[in-house]
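Continuing the batch. This is chain 6 of the set; chains 1 through 5 are on the previous pages. Same settings as before, nothing changed between runs. Recording input and output for traceability.
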Amino acid sequence: MAALSDAEIWRPLFVAVGISALLFGGFKARAFVICLVLPLLIGSLVTSALKSAVDRPRPKQVESVRMVQLQKARPKFLTLFKEPIIRFSDSSDRSRSGLHRVLPARLAVLVRNRCGRLLTNLPRLALA
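Output for chain 6:
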């Protein structure tokens, strides 16, 4: 799960797909990339402003929680082949804030909206 939620691992893939869609795709592919990037940029600005204004503590800052961290490697996707580090948060984790990663969630929402009709009809097509 830590590998799926780490945006740094998947960023090269997203960039490669986006650039290839811009270069080799038609009008709809280019429009999709632009309509995907603009809300992500605006959303990250709004999210960072709201996060600094609300200043809600993260769970690891309030109590002891289980944390799964990937080992460091270059390039970043090589962390998928290493054993993750599992530990519980302590007082050193309570003093610093975690990073808010909205890219995977926003990407999922945008793809769901783009392919929503296909995904909703998929069970119906499978039963037919």
